[in-house]
Description:
This protein is mainly beta. 6% of the residues lie in helices and 42% in strands. The chain has 2 helices and 32 strands.
Amino acid sequence: MSVRSRSVYRGFALIELLIALAVCSIALSSAALAFYVLPYDVQSIEQEYRAWQDALEALRDNPLLPADRLDDGAARRQSETSWTDASGRKRSVSIAYPDVSASSTDACDPLVSGDWSRPRAIRTYSVSDLLPANAPSGTYPVSALAVAGPWFAVGVAQTSTSSAPTLLFLPDDGNTLAVATASFDNASTSRIGFSALAAGGGYLFAGNGFGSASAATCSDSMSCSQVQVFSISGAVPMRVASLSFPLVSSDGTSATVGALAYANGLLYIGLHKTSTGQEFLIIDAHDPLRMRLAGSLNIGHSVTNIGLRDGIAYISTDDSSREVLVVNVQDPARPSIVSNMDAPGSANFGYGVAAVPYFGSLLIGRSYVSNAPEVTLVSDASSSWSQLAADDIGKAKTPESVRALLRQDFLAFALTSRALRIYSVVGVALQSYAPPLPLPDGADGTALACRGATIYAGYAAADGSGDIEMLQGS
């Protein structure tokens, strides 16, 4: 591995809290969390949810308490609210949660705001309209999205010409996007662009989708680096380093990146299948200018997504008999597979696309399967799996594959090849929360991101162009 340089705290599920209140009033902190799933009156849940919605504005207005720290050192906000439930009983709760700032690796508000049973698109942009003035015209399909400090980063899958930029940094305030302040091309000799993005620690990490076995196409040292690093702490984003490792695909080209995730100074890299099998890498990125390999793991298939929680990595793969692997990464030098999931279905197997952890459960999305669901909620267990709920969204005449999953509070956003679907995940229940939002004709969903209360969806249109849609609850 070589490095070249140039001179996750989470919110709490809202409805789960309300169900917990059926037992007692709970004070939440990072030191102790207790959740109970009990039968509960739906009308009461709805009433108490609305009470929480009304209390959110006051909660948001609370000042930061810099002396009050969570275990991970993040500043937190704290508030109390009370209400009378449908049975006339007084209820109250005290809640503390991490403050979300522009430097956070998880830029979603920890609590849902707005009515997501009636989502609305507040802006839709063509990527071509967000290009800097000197960028060539052509197609710019979206491959990846990431909130990167004050910027919104857009990865482009493939361009019309090799000189076109494949990474854009857009000014973003959570309500509007502006023309790119900075743009970069991952490989000046190829039209193939970046395939994955992850932000953290004042940097954006961009995974290369371009692989080559030719020394000529790698004459620019950055071109064949699997990861390129951009500083996002200054007035303008700058490319400051790159990361390469001697792993190749079965066809002899340099291994390309399928997924990236960042947490606590560590960069988790998922590669497309390599000839040696080391598709999962953990990089010590505390100093991105001096990154080093901390540990690796043989997956044997391409990695499509990496989800992280509490020292566990949930790795989605294109292995139809092991769609999701649960990997213990508490010791980065010795990652180990704890268990794996073979999702339901006995024919035309779909591959794993994404796995998002909830409290005691795991939401899994995969590609179209003819005889099994594409969206599945399973128990999150280290040694055994059980299906809790599922949604079979793909049909023979209208096949539909999950492309990306994103969690905010008790909601799950599933971007598919046909629509944006919104679910509620409450205990063991997975329910549709809003009617599916169809994608533009011929478009395919590719990526999701979140800042504050805004969800961003990236598309690749049938003509090769790319679009970004910004959505909020009504």
